[in-house]
Each structure stands twice: as structure tokens, then as C-alpha cells.
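Human: I'm a chemist; would you kindly supply sequence and C-alpha cells for a protein?

Assistant:
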Amino acid sequence: MTRPVLIDLFCKAGGVAMGYHQAGFDVIGVDWDPQPNYPFQFMQADVWGLAPGFYAAADAVHASPECQGYSSLRHAKGAKGRPQEIGRIRKILQGLGLPYVIENVEMAAFDMIEPIKLCGSMFGLGAQGHHLERHRLFESNIAISAPGPCVHRKPVIGVYGGHARNRAAKRGGRGTRDVWEGGHNAAASEAMGIDWMTLDELSEAIPPAFTEHLGHQLLAHIHAQRSAA
């Protein structure tokens, strides 16, 4: 059996893609911005303008529409008025008849259909005595599940705004200067399980462990469909 193909929409620098690749997919990324660090086949294009025929060779699709319109900072300068486009991309994906996954932030729950939440603590992610939460929601038109509950027993490392943040006030975080062995990039890369991105790219990324977990579930569904055909 050849490796199934997954289309990675709004792909950024490829955290999502690496997880699906590790699960067993060949991945093609699409984004309207150049992504020189994307580790697989990449096409710069407007996702909304893709013709249905583009998906002809695909076995599954992942979409991470922008989160600024849903995030807790949606009223901040530069984010105010940003679109909420989960429903729009869902309509496109439903029309393809392929298994799909849609990802977004926790605040987007109202606009998602029975999403599951994944957390870095479910996968043992973290760095330098801190664990990574990185809570994200995932909706799918197939049955998907988390590997277990969140386990929040350590101080948290946050990767956002081009920095690795110590989010425990009692350990010097929250408003103080965060200092990490090897610097911010080393700590953020270790925590996310990503070693090819800049700090700005890491700030927008999804840990590959999340989509490797989902990718195995997608593959099981695809293999079952092929066996039944």
C-alpha cells in the first residue's frame, strides 16, 4: 500500500505536517505566505481559491484557519475584526467527501462540532523542568480521541510572541525576564518537539506529537475504507 496523501491547509512552517508525516502520510502544504522552512512539498496559494480538482489525489485534509478572530487577544490592536472562518472551511471540506481535521484555539469551541482537546502534557512535552500545555481543539468528521487527560503538575512553558515564557509566577515568570539554558529558541524547540523553525514560527506552530496521534487514527480509518472497497 502506498503512503496516503494529506493536504495541509494554512500550513505555516510545518508542525502539523511533521506529525502527519511521522504517522505515515505524504504531506502537501498550502499557505498564502511563503514558508521557506516547510519540510515537505509546499505550494504558495490562497486556500480559498483552490479548485476542487486540487484535492483529487488526497486521502485526507487538515485545516488550521487563522485563530486571531477567536483568541483571547481578538480585541487587541491588529487582531480586532479578524475573521472567524471555521464554518467556511468546514463547508469546503464537507464537500470533498474526505476525512478531515480542523484545528483551532480553545476559545473557538463555540464554532466547532464536538472537538477534542489535546495538551502537551498528554504527550510528555516540555523543557527544563516545565511542561508544555499548548491546548488546542480538533474537530473531525471521523471518530478521534485524546490519549488521556491533561496532567498539570509542573510549571508551564509557553511558546508565544517569539519567546519561551515561564508561566509560573512563583518560579520567576509572569512579568519577569525569562532565562533558559541555551536561550529561548533551544527551550521552545525542545518543548514543542520541533528543531527547524524560528522562534516566530514556533509561536504559531502545533506540536507534531498532536497530529502524529491524530494521523494514526486517520490512517486506521483510511485503511478500513480501502479494505472494505
Q: What stands out?
A: The chain has a mean pLDDT of 91.
